[in-house]
């Protein structure tokens, strides 16, 4: 394996992206460290240091202890430094404040996209290839929102790529729509490592950006896809099966927008029997949009 110090910048970036897609969250030393043996040695040294002086007949043991104490501190085994936890570069409350200020300062979708791409207060950005932002035609008055980018989304730089995206295209076509004439985006602009669920601080930091996307797009109705998305906007902890199919208002920018939740295309690929439920939700959505 080529050492990291011998890699070109592009090669190192490709390797880091590979690790991120594989779900690697931590980097460790090149050589393994036996922490169990290290702890046992430290404990033994502590016991020898605290043991009472022994008679002269047992001088060999005492001499060994004295010799150990006399060793320079640099030669003694010391615990390796612990890697810092992956907390945001700035405290969560400050990151949320900065995200809110950046989002509210944008007066158009283009300005908001620029502000999001320049924002560095969320650690998810460091492991993602792409920043996912709303695409489509805001004039349609229709917005489709998913949870977080998938691996396909991260590679392609667009929401709902890959198999899930193809199924979404068919779902929209079934009610006379296409992704070209609706706004499509995700709650989280960056893919979490290993496709894990975002943490509460991560979701709170990204909230101002998705709410501002909705506010600037001015949709007449929003279709929410998946469990995380429904919980995020409805503020509830139920499953998507409990939250789907019900029209509710979500607050964005001081005004309410009607929204309905349904199953995510990836969930339908995993459980095709649920497509009947999704079809009912899509019909309800179409009925709402067909109103004068």
Automatic annotation (TrEMBL):
Gene3D superfamilies associated with the record: Uracil-DNA glycosylase-like domain (3.40.470.10)
Record field: compositional bias (Basic and acidic residues): 68-78
Record keywords, A-Z: 4Fe-4S, DNA damage, DNA repair, Hydrolase, Iron, Iron-sulfur, Metal-binding
Pfam families linked: UDG
Annotated spans, Disordered: 44-92
GO biological process: one example: DNA repair
InterPro entries on file: UDG_Type-4/5, Ura-DNA_glyco_family4, Uracil-DNA_glycosylase-like, Uracil-DNA_glycosylase-like_sf
Positions of the Uracil-DNA glycosylase-like domain: 133-283
Molecular function as annotated in GO: 4 iron, 4 sulfur cluster binding; metal ion binding; uracil DNA N-glycosylase activity
Family membership noted in the UniProt record: Belongs to the uracil-DNA glycosylase (UDG) superfamily. Type 4 (UDGa) family.
Protein name, entry field: Type-4 uracil-DNA glycosylase
Organism (species): Rhizobium daejeonense
């Amino acid at each position: 394996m080529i050492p990291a110090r011998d890699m070109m910048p592009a090669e190192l970036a490709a390797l880091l992206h590979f690790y991120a897609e594989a779900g690697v969250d931590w980097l460790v030393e090149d050589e393994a460290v036996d922490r169990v043996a290290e702890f046992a040695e430290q404990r033994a040294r502590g016991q020898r240091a605290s043991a009472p002086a022994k008679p002269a007949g047992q001088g060999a043991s005492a001499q060994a202890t004295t010799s150990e104490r006399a060793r320079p501190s640099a030669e003694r085994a010391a615990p390796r430094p612990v890697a810092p936890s992956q907390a945001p570069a700035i405290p969560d409350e400050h990151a949320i404040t900065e995200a809110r200020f950046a989002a509210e300062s944008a007066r158009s979708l283009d300005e908001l996209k620029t502000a999001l791409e320049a924002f560095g207060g969320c650690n998810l950005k460091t492991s993602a290839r792409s920043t996912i932002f709303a695409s489509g035609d805001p004039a349609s008055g229709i917005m489709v929102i998913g949870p977080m980018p998938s691996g396909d989304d991260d590679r392609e730089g667009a929401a709902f790529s890959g198999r899930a995206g193809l199924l979404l295209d068919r779902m929209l076509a079934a009610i006379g729509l296409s992704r070209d004439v609706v706004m499509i985006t995700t709650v989280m602009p960056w893919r979490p490592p290993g496709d894990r669920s975002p943490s509460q601080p991560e979701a709170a930091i990204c909230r101002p950006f998705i709410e501002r996307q909705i506010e600037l797009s001015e949709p007449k109705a929003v279709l929410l896809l998946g469990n995380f998305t429904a919980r995020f906007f409805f503020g509830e902890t139920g499953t998507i099966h409990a939250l789907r199919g019900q029209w509710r208002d979500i607050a964005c920018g001081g005004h309410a927008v009607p929204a309905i939740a349904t199953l995510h295309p990836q969930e339908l690929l995993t459980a095709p029997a649920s497509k009947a439920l999704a079809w009912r939700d899509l019909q309800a959505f179409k009925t709402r949009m067909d109103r004068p």
